[in-house]
Amino acid sequence: MASLLKELPSMTTILSVYASLSGLSMLIRTILNEMIPRDRWQAVENETFRAVEVYLPTKVGPSTKSLLL
Q1: Which one-letter DSSP state was computed for residue 69?
Q2: Where are the transmembrane segments (predicted)?
């Protein structure tokens, strides 16, 4: 058991690694947010919405005022 305690890193080392990884993750998140614009995040939903906009008028008559989905 004593040899196991000697092999553990110190609390300072653990906190230093944690801080470095946290900083790296924030940097990566910031870079990705700059490279991928916010309007591209919902690209699949927008494509689906546009497809429904084209498809529904062919199936629903002009007298329909609202549609419950």
Answers
A1: -
A2: 12-32
